[in-house]
Amino acid sequence: MGADARGTPGPAGSRAAARGRALHLGQPAAGGAVRGCRLPGTHQARLDPRHARPRPRVARSRRRGRAAEGRRPDFRHAVRPRRRPAPGLPRRLPRLARQPPAAERALRRQSVGPAHLRRSVARPEEEGRRPLRPATPRGAGRRVNRARQGGPPLTATHVEASERLRQVLDRLVAMSEDDYYNPYQLFQWPDSLPQEQYWMSPELMSTHGVRAADELTEQQLWAISKWESVNFYSLNVHGIRELLTEVISRIYTKGFEDTSEYFHHIIGEENEHMWFFATFCLKYGGKIYPDKGMTLADGEEGDAANFLVFSRLLIFEEIVDFFNKRMGVDERLHPTIRQVNAIHHQDESRHIAFGRQIVALLHERLRDTSTAADLLRLEGYLKRYLRTSLDSLCNPAVYRDAGLPDPYAFRRAVLADPARVELESQILKRTVGFLVSKGIFTDESIPAS
């Protein structure tokens, strides 16, 4: 029994009573189980042990002085209870689960290839997180390497140009992915094209406005337009073959680390272009005219050879795009002809944007390592290549296949006519203007035929 009817404490009651008296008087209770003190003020408070504040687990000590009694425990030495994993779960989570989110990892790492700025991943808004350190520009790292290798160091202008190139590559890669199409399913080739209509815009034909064409009949002009169309697409086949050869030989090589990823898009797109140009020539012309273009300059190597290669490719693409842009919207042409030119113009606009950036960057580096005589020699070669490219549009084999009696005499008359000179100036206006603005050409003069 804890107590009798009159409140006389028994064994258990005597301990409770003693504990209550100790708390009331502000004295330590027996056993030290519950400690109390007299609270401030005049009111005396009795503490119920059932409502006592739970004490944290503290390190045990064999020697505990009585001076510690009545104090609040020191939480600095508190020991957290060890959590046990739920049934069925491993004691230690795999490492992958403790990695940052994918969006944050994309910002931390350096992306592969030229797409350093390709995908701007939006970082989730997190409060209290320290911002990530921006990645070191690639150009800055290569400056040290080039100096260590004994080559000319990259200047601030070079780094800025390289950054512009990376930004252009970023956009072009995204556009190539968004505009991708399957040419093998896109084109529906009719069995034949009408012979009694133009296959090329009359304003773009070599006969436009020249006196030698005044005596030609409309049927002869239709025939010339057909074979000039086949010749134009044959030039595309040969130009693309050269482009593929040169780009493939440079992909993932020193100096082209940033551009190699976009090279994949160029290679894939140009391979498809060559296919539908060759298909047009073989299906509707029965042949591809042979290549009689200008070979690459011998003796050039290193940066000079790279500059000439990409300059040639840029010139070729800009001349071709002048025709594609206009024939792609000419309602006088057959829908198949319009489609071929429109599709090619869509892709070539990206290739031209890339070509201008890399040609300008390569020439800036050449100016630091080449003499004035070397730069003039390269300029002379590119101007001769421009002349050869324009003259290749006037193929005597075209006039022969169209039935003209003296194709070589007709070609000489076309090249010497002032109307032809005017058309050539329109074709080269943007290209020559760009080369002059970048200091690659010292003037706009082009050698005569």
Automatic annotation (TrEMBL):
Compositional bias (Low complexity): 1-20
Gene3D superfamilies named in the record: Ribonucleotide Reductase, subunit A (1.10.620.20)
Comp. bias regions, Basic and acidic residues: 66-77
Gene Ontology MF annotations: oxidoreductase activity
Biased composition (Basic residues): 52-65
Transmembrane feature ranges: none
UniProt-listed Pfam families: AurF
Region (Disordered): 1-160
Record-given protein name: AurF domain containing protein
Organism: Solihabitans fulvus
